[in-house]
Automatic annotation (TrEMBL), chains A, B:
Family the entry assigns: Belongs to the glycosyl hydrolase 130 family.
GO molecular function: hydrolase activity
Keywords: Glycosyltransferase, Hydrolase, Transferase
Protein name in UniProt: Glycoside hydrolase family 130 protein
Organism field: Lapidilactobacillus mulanensis
Amino acid sequence: MIHVERFKDNPLITPADVKPLNEGFEVIGTFNAAVAQLPNETIMVLRVAERPLNSDPSKLLIPIYDVESQTTKVITKDNDATRFNTSDSRTIGPQQGGYDFDYLTSISYLRIARSQDGVHFTVDDQAFVYPHNDYETYGIEDARCTKIDGKYYLNFSAVSSRGICVELISTTDFTSYHEEAIIFNPDNKDVVLFPEKIHGRYYALNRPTVKSTGHNDVWISSSPDLHSFGDHHWLFSGSKDGWDNGRVGAGLPPIKTDAGWLEIYHAADKSSKYCMGAMLLDLDDPTKIIYRSKNPILSPDADYEQKGFFGEVVFGCGYTLKDDQLTMYYGVSDTSMAACRFSISELTDKLAKHEL
Amino acid sequence: MIHVERFKDNPLITPADVKPLNEGFEVIGTFNAAVAQLPNETIMVLRVAERPLNSDPSKLLIPIYDVESQTTKVITKDNDATRFNTSDSRTIGPQQGGYDFDYLTSISYLRIARSQDGVHFTVDDQAFVYPHNDYETYGIEDARCTKIDGKYYLNFSAVSSRGICVELISTTDFTSYHEEAIIFNPDNKDVVLFPEKIHGRYYALNRPTVKSTGHNDVWISSSPDLHSFGDHHWLFSGSKDGWDNGRVGAGLPPIKTDAGWLEIYHAADKSSKYCMGAMLLDLDDPTKIIYRSKNPILSPDADYEQKGFFGEVVFGCGYTLKDDQLTMYYGVSDTSMAACRFSISELTDKLAKHEL
């Protein structure tokens, strides 16, 4: 165990703090934010999820961005239990079939929250990145931010009827952005970029979702240009039993420490309870794991971590670091943002000694 | 329709022509070969599939390459219908579960066949590439060969409990080879490399298998170094009805013609009948489709194309070209190799006129 101090102001941002951009929609999530520490400002790039208001339970309302008309439309389907499975609040799935979902129940986009003290945030009135191309028609989700050579790179999941792929954009000012590329084709998610080149190549952790056989494991891939990734290596899988037996995925962008690259990742068990774990990767060759924690460093124990749109979830995507103090910002229950702080040296020391 | 002439010697190579490399195994497939035209020799890089001989129908025999002992082992499981689905002759699947298979019934590897006349082939006594790493424990399959800057690049599917990924090797002599990289992580297959750079980047068609939502569609990706691919673009999907409503995938490596990049691809309908279709891509920007055939150019009509280990399949992976005559070598029924020839100008003319 390490000592983790949750912010007393948690949750820091909730859906009640944010007005929907779409008329006739409600904000149901402000969560899973990428984080950047600017000289005078802490930035969260929130995932905001909006859902069409629905007073008729016999109907399913499905939000989809329409590229041609450049608007978010709502498709109506009969809530037919012989056709659709609505047991997961996030998706409208098939009753039978080897895929996960036909539609999402909400549409997500990226919106910035700004803070002077890292605790009290003000959310921008407008989106930073809203779906606008054929790869994003179901929404964009779960950004991560890595500063490389003075520029902030943000990658996020783009969801559409083409599957879930990973897009990269860059910004210097968090006002405008440049579209870089689709860096992983479907199905892939939970990509984090390393902040510097290692032996001349950029690195990224990523989490392909497999259909043929096997598990949803974390891989590590490298790139000469941040647009093209390859030389893929399998990195790790969840355990057969315990807190990480459902799925794993990278969480925070890797942090360079004397003990190795510190990666704080998420894992879910088979009942979809999400915790955060930690691992150290070799500084010189990050395809090598030095040690991976046997137990979570953060579990959904607080009330706001247990209850919400999709409960029992802590899901960290970003951090700030001041001296030895790491502040992890994390989504809770697919609903709100929270934060906690802990000593990075305590964490890396205990990982290096195999005490976690 | 175009005029297609099947070779009168078809099938050119059958499992009876090839001795198994593993004791206690039988060769059940010699198919889906990559092809290279050397100055004095036509090379097929066959997929050879070997299956453990099994006289006990109450048992399932599963061949797996064991990396530690560097041997192909056979695992025995009870043929338990409550646990395993064996309705697909190629796989041992789950009775329930959102993935395709637990194991394969055979192990595939790459073995070279050589010919002076392109019709009569002699198969090497040994493997060219046999599974030997953790990504290949269930076998390696369906190579494609593209000559780039004087070197032959071969990519193939590597199957293991980590999913299906795509590896690249290179050779100059088809005797030894150099391991390049894993160029696509799971699940992906049916990768074909373009034979030259376009605006400074290498290109590849590829076919991610999606689990979240959507279909198994063909994407196009580019690379600065042949190891790392990115800037992924969705290219095309099968139709809702007809011969290509099941799945699509690239077949032959793209051929540069005056009319555009000619891609001869495969498509299956929902009953898994595999045909070959053709399309033209823009020479200057291969992410743009000029025209895709509405009908197949080759269907499994001959007896050897209809009957076999997995019937009703024509599956072309390689070709030779002499003047206007294109010879397509293709696997039939996941069992044997066949070939046919046709006029490439007739094909591209009719595609350009939207007559196919």
